[in-house]
């Protein structure tokens, strides 16, 4: 993996890969086209460009998550996912909030 991914792995403090059942949340697969949306106001924030897991998306440095409009900054691995409008959460405890299915 890249240096960025290693840094991000340290940030969320898991030293092992996401294959353990207790980390199942991080293994959730999001298909291309999934929209990450704010859990507070419902604002769509990022589109998933390639099939990716929760861990991939949380650690993304802007290559998987495409901002839906120009007011949204590219995601980078050092920033938590949050709504640019209301600051609402897009990520919590292994789950991402999507436009299509809510907390997934
Ligand atoms: Zn919001």
Short overview:
The chain is α+β, with helices and mostly antiparallel strands and 104 residues long.
Write structural notes for this entry.
The chain has one domain. 13% of the residues lie in helices and 22% in strands. It has 2 helices and 8 strands; from the N terminus they run αββββαββββ. The protein has helices at residues 3-11, 54-58, and strands at 29-30, 35-37, 44-48, 52-53, 65-67, 91-92, 95-98, 102-103. The longest helix has 9 residues, at 3-11. The structure holds zinc ion. Residues 38, 40-41, 43, 83, 85-86, 88 line the site of zinc ion.
List the topology elements.
Blueprint: H1 3-11, E1 29-30, E2 35-37, E3 44-48, E4 52-53, H2 54-58, E5 65-67, E6 91-92, E7 95-98, E8 102-103
Antiparallel strand pairs: 1-4, 2-3, 3-5, 6-7, 7-8
This protein binds zinc ion.
